[in-house]
Amino acid sequence: MPIGKKIVLLAVSLSVLASCSALPTGSQINSAGVGLKLVAEGFTAPTALAAPEDGTGRLFIVDQIGVIKVLTPDGKLSEDPFLDLRDRVVKLSDRYDERGLLGLAFHQDFKKNGRFFVYYSAPLRSGGPQGWNHTSHISEFKVSSDNPNKADPKSERIVLEVDEPQANHNGGQLAFGPDGYLYISLGDGGAANDVGLGHSLTGNGQDLSTLLGKILRIDVNASDPYGIPADNPFVGQQGARAEIFAYGFRNPYRFSFDAGANHDLFVADVGQNLFEEVDIVTRGGNYGWNTKEGTHCFDPKNPNQPLASCSSVGARGEPLVGPIIEYDHKTGIAVVGGFIYRGSALPQFGGRYILGDWSTSSNRADGKLFMATAPASTGAMWAMEELKIATTSNGKLGRSVLAFGQDADRELYVLTSEKTGPAGNTGKIFKIVPAP
Question: pTM for the full model?
């Protein structure tokens, strides 16, 4: 789902890959394993799981095809969708597609106001740029006044529309930050190299006049359709969009806020042909794309061979912020961001970052789970290791990883499929539990 790669990915130069270590260097913790407990199945391609802070213990599971279903605390999955947007989502390709219903976030006062927000790919709006692919919608809905397990489909309020030149690199994550503002991830617009139709000469990741390739931060309580937080980094700057919180991303498909400590914002940015990265994102930061792919200098004209050198600053003289995690494509080809673990069932993982990778190949479902540990010294890379799956016969997941979710108790879930595209009904959600 988040791969965002061209087929030429499979022809990446072996000589380049041979020079790269599969995992970051640094002290490794002891080999770890987890169990996976099946909690829901029958989905096409589950892309998000969210739990409102309303005391009900319900989990809401997003399916890429345009459906949200409710999983009750007793393990029952609703037959009727909580929300069905299939008639509003752009027609998807069964073989592979990065569009669809991608994100869900519940308002922090959801228990009282019934407000929630979704991110979905709609057909290109009337008057949209000629030749462009679709329009991303960030929309607000409200729960039905008659049934807490049903949304009112007529309550849609489109908060933000973003035209997308290509079908891939859509980001799609929504989350409310600890400051009460809504954060939104948007990819660079698609295709490859951040060039081509709909991409500026500098690349959309570096262009502050477009929302593409950014993390946005808006106030959905201030005004209609939304307000701009006064401390957003580019408020009042000519030629820059005030919604931007951070920039320089290729496809920030999944991000999360740490539920503890300093509530750091962890963003997994899917790379292109060679490297995957995870960043700790701060206000106004420039994370490098398409000047860099991970820590390496990127050449849009020859993406399989890093440049020997490149600028370490952006156009405004600002530093390009490096990742905390980087790995090459011998390990996986599309990073999927997870969460800092703050639950109680797996105390040995406390404070560590759980993440995954979509697959080791673009033509089979072969995802992985990882755990990363913060370094003892400032500025060093986090140490990362693959988690063995104790509940499978070979210790492997054997499925593609589409997303992670977190419940109200801060326990984690992994959303998976046996397919590489939104087809069939092999989508399953597993709770990450102690190894038996």
Answer: 0.94
